What we know:
This protein has 14 helices and 23 strands. The protein is of the alpha/beta class and 554 residues long.
Amino acid sequence: MGTIPKEIGKLKNLKVLDLGNNLLTGPIPAELGNLSSIMIINLQSNGLTGKLPPELGNLRYLKELHLDRNRLQGSLPVTEQSEYPSRMFASSTNTIGLCKSPLLKVADFSYNFFVGSIPKCLQYLPITSFQGNCLQDKDPKQRPPTQCGGGVPLVKARKSPSLDPKHRPAETVSKHHRASKPTWLLSLEIVTGTMVGIFLLVGVLSAVHRCNNRSSLIIPWKKSGSEKDKFRAYIDSEMLKGVTRFTRQELEVACEDFSNIIGSSADSLVYKGNIKGGPEIAVISLCIKEEDWTGYLELYFQREVADLARLNHENAGKLLGYCKERAQFTRMLVFEYASNGTLYEHLHYGEASLLSWARRMKIVLGIARGLKYLHTELDPPFTISELNSSAVYLTEDFTPKLLDFECWKTILARSEKNSRNISSQGAMCVLPNAMERRHLDLQGNIYAFGVLLLEIVSGRPPYCKDKGCLVEWAKEFLEVEDGMGNLVDPELKHHFKQEELKAICEVASQCMNPDQDQPAMQELCEKLESRITLSISAELVSSSLAWAELALSS
């Protein structure tokens, strides 16, 4: 929440002002009339109040104006010559307000509390642009009188003789005096009104204080001195308030001068480290040059940190904090380290004896519970960008942790998309809530979970040159119960449970069947939990290494 900062009026080259859906309150500042080059204004779906400033008529290049779904009042700011209904005279020197905007093609004033009538110079707009107000119009889609102060517009009330005591009949005046309220009731109303006014004043001052605390950040699209290559991003200072911020020096010491690399991709590097007096950490660092860092990337980075920080589940990777610095350009995420490596490494490079059937079932249930939490217990839901065995990290006791290390790819993709959009519009002003939301691919996660089940049971990668595609190979065994045993990793031999294997195959088929509607993750998780049994004795029976571990611990 907050108000529209008056400083926006100083952005001389602003072409598009998009502040829709940002919970903004208060009046629209008259300073918006100083945006001489503005072409599009979007303030819809906020809580804006007060009258529309007539200074908006100074916007000679304004083409679109979206003010719908606010709480704006008063009449539309126009003064026109009644004998000229045509808009061709809208630029007359005798007109002020919106009638002076010759290029205005699209405007939406619906669902506010505007009174009066539709100006003749704006009657070229569709009637839906004015519905949901308190206008004196035959359109039945105006607000009912109960929402408009009894149906009498405030601008007309003063001129109505019937409401002026001087023009009322003597009988009506005498009745009014006889029905006057007692003194104690008037005193109570005054005290109540004063208290309400104080609360409103405190609320307004708090909103202004929060707005002033919002830092203004100007970041260039390119390293250029031209003002056209810049836009202003208003970063919500409260967004990362509860997330720990590490310094680059702290992480450099923890990760042994960033020499302990445990993973890499085209977009990022992953380091292992150890915070003094704290847990082991995994640090993912974005590989991008400072000159390529854009305002949208900064906004999406902060949004991603805030999104990851809300995850709190045994089977979801825990974000410990982030790092952002300008002096030596840095953008990093710090996760709790899972010391047993990735599931991919254990399945395809490790010793098969370490992954007994019981441990594989423990990993299956952990992944299912993690996805159930991300999909159904969070609001809004969260999905893993690329769900595969490399996104599943294991702890010492083989508890799986889902980590979204590929989130950078989605950040870069969204930024590139918006960069293309902005290139044709010049400068823009945006707020975090107006940004494109995180992509939620629930169906993609469920399909990937089905593939992951086959990979865990068979020990085969999703695709390899020698053996081909795992899904195609598994199809002939999934439907026939007698053939399901052919799916099991040969290293396990006969150390598996037929009933649990059958449950795995059924769930995998449901996840990957394109001819049927995919079930929700909650349903899949419940099916697996009801048919897979986890116990220490089962793990001891299926793993000779577990016997050794038990003997050493005792």
